[in-house]
């Protein structure tokens, strides 16, 4: 039903830590002016959306005591 697996030698893992390549990766390409402008515009759009949602949502979060009538029990009226 279940077969035993053969043990795997892990010597290659230890050798991989010591191995260093003499090939350096190419330098990253600098972002163009259009890409920088696009990233900036995207960031500003996200920030404006968050601020706008706060501005629209804040009135709903405030407790307005004047508009809600105070609840009184009939027992306190002496009835």
DSSP helix fraction: 40-55%
Low-confidence stretches: none
- Please give the count of helices: 2
Order of helices and strands: HH
Structural class label: mainly alpha
Main pleated sheet: none
Give a count of the beta strands, DSSP E runs of length 2 or more. 0
- Percent of residues in β-strands: under 5%
Average per-residue pLDDT, rounded, comes to 77
Shape assignment? flat
Whole-Å distance between the termini?
83 Å
Give the C-alpha Rg: 34 Å
Question: Could you explain the architecture of this structure?
Answer:
The protein is mostly helical. The protein is built from two helices and no strands. The longest helix is centred in the middle third of the chain and has 29 residues, at 33-61. The chain is flat, with a radius of gyration of 34 Å.
Fold blueprint:
Layout (H helix, E strand, L loop, with lengths): L10 H8 L14 H29 L18
What structural keywords apply?
79 residues, mainly alpha, 2 helices, flat
Summarize the structure.
With 79 residues, the protein is mostly helical. It is 47% helix and 0% strand. It starts with 10 loop residues before the first helix and ends in an 18-residue tail after the last helix.
